[in-house]
Amino acid sequence: MAAGHVKEYITRVASIDGEIYPRWDLTKPLPKLPVPDIHMTLQKYLDIMTPILTPEQLQRTKLIVKDFGKPGGLGEFLQQKLKNVAETKDNWAYSWWLDDMYMRVRLPLPINCNPGIMFPARYLETRHDQLRYAARLISGILDYKTVLDVRGLPIDRCRHKEKGQPLCMEQYYRLFSSYRVPGVKKDSLITNSTKLMPEPEHIIVVCMNQFFVLDVVINFTRMSEDDLFTQLDRITKMANESEEKSAPIGLMTAAPRDRWAVTRMQLMEDSTNRDSLDAIERSLFILCLDKALPISFNHQQSFDQTSRNVRDDVSIMLQMLHGCGSKHNSGNRWFDKTMQFIISEDGACGLNFEHSPSDGIAVVQLIQHLLRYMEEVRQRRLARMRSICELPYPRRLQWKFFQEVLQEIEVAATSFDRLIDDLDFYILKFDHFGREFPKSQNMSPDSFIQLALQLTYYKIHGRFVSTYESASTRRFRLGRVDNIRANSIPALEWVKAMVGQTTTTDEAKLQLLQKAMDWQTKFMTEAILGKGIDCHLLGLRELAAELGIPTPDIFTDEAYKISNHFSLSTSQVPTETTSFLCGYGPVVPDGYGVCYNPQPDKIVVCVSSFKSCPETSSDFFAATIESSFLQMYELCLRVNAQRSQQEIPKIRNFGNVNSMGYTEIKSSPRKTRLIRQKNTDLISSRDGDVKENGK
């Protein structure tokens, strides 16, 4: 009955979507990703590098680019070869992009790669409540998987440029069938896309750092929710009663990839370990039953929650990102698995997902559908499935550890704890206005936020840097993402005017802002239409290597390295509520990770950095984002008032505002406390579209 209900739910959602976009023929295959014009790509490359290079660096780069792109030169030769490759593949960029973005990266997965997602909090007062919700979650996932198995999800549609155009859905179908295998120098993404291997019928439950096989189908019969609860209860008792506490092998999946690859090969020498690894790698997903965390993990600014002995969102997001340390829940993980659901005794729930099979926006949309469906099932109180009479006990996975492996686990624990302690994470819930204000000014909310981030970084650091914002290319076959770069020449001109380095009027500042937004919107549109520069340059570089051609100068030039050092790594991941959040770590040691969620009347921004970098501070960056938003807001209102000869509404007392546009703070950035002024009521208006991008 539940399976029939989920199909009815999906059909209902799909039919609504079809009524909105009736003109698109969903039976036609998606187009292939085009190969951009090489000369346009090279010009864009110079444009985005101009604001972040010294004059000497820029002059050298211009000469190198000119030589690479000259008629009959190496660039045109590689371009033609790339076009030939594109004719033979569904997506010429996919494999090169996957290796460069994920498979060749040797850093630990948690914080550096795997995002964390926080679900709306549950009120789970007892272990019984935790297991009941876990059983309902498993049952809901299995219901939803019946639709995934027949590739029956409603087609996602474009929300920007050619609205309603179908998007590639392949990412969804990899979520419960993929696994990342560590390798020396390069990992592998394994996806069961054929029918040669039998479909897995089990999940892995992790409790107290111990791994258990929970069969969800027995004798061709799927377990009922009550049966799942019974098995989960057995697992928790088995974990608590275990006399021998196994070494926390899950910590190895948080080690640098080369070290974990070598250790995994050592484990595979024993048949017991091979069986355990195989059970984990072939499972549908991982379910982590976590211990409650102390209130000490709350952020230092969360005075209200801490005084009421309530966990804050920062604490919960950290649990989803890394488990909060080897003495808490970090060993209760297996970070190589694509989907890893987390349910804590204290009601914190969420997901840690391995990023290589899918982009964040697809995962978030699937989870939101899943949670809505689970709530419908709960409210309808559908007839329960028949219980299985005799349930075999869940199986605890066994391990045989050599001394070298035990030493590696200890090293991994120390290294991971150090990385966890280094993460600086803050969540800004900006409630003065949301995405409706930029729209009321005929501005793109995403461009508004991106330019606010450029202004923020410049205020703090006095310069522009390479900025990554993911742009979906899913309107093409096997499409993933390219890069929107906000570090443009028009943006720099506007920022210098905003901080007072160039003297000009408010009217001129707003015109500069509009010019920067027009550039940003044009670059974004071209990126989502397959004319981005990052994948194109990557393809030319990788193709040269495959052809045995010495690396072209354009890719050994210092400017190319600078262009790929993303001190600002950003993405928009819109969700239905602010209680559903996504976050991740920085991608470089001296950078910021910024994941933002524009709601109609508020903007939520998750900011991360590393404490070991003396120049970065997440709460100071968040405070400066807040001042940038308000500075841009006031600029718009002042110009509007000047144009209409009306009085400007007084909205805020900034205190001592310096020439950089934010409140002066006496102490150092590391010790700064986020300044809050809660005496402002701003305008919110109707809801609207958000473009389809995400990390």
Automatic annotation (TrEMBL):
One Pfam family here: Carn_acyltransf
Any single GO CC term annotated in Swiss-Prot or TrEMBL for this entry: cytoplasm
Residues in Choline/carnitine acyltransferase domain copies: 33-626
Catalytic residues (positions): 355 (proton acceptor)
Keyword hit for Acyltransferase: yes
Membrane-spanning residues: none
Enzyme class, first EC level, given as a word: transferase
Keyword Cytoplasm: no
Coiled coil: none
Keywords: Acyltransferase, Neurotransmitter biosynthesis, Transferase
One MF annotation (Gene Ontology) recorded for this entry: choline O-acetyltransferase activity
GO biological process, one term: acetylcholine biosynthetic process
EC number: 2.3.1.6
PANTHER family per the UniProt record, alphabetical: CARNITINE O-ACYLTRANSFERASE, CHOLINE O-ACETYLTRANSFERASE
Family (UniProt): Belongs to the carnitine/choline acetyltransferase family.
Name of the molecule in the record: Choline O-acetyltransferase
Source organism: Potamilus streckersoni
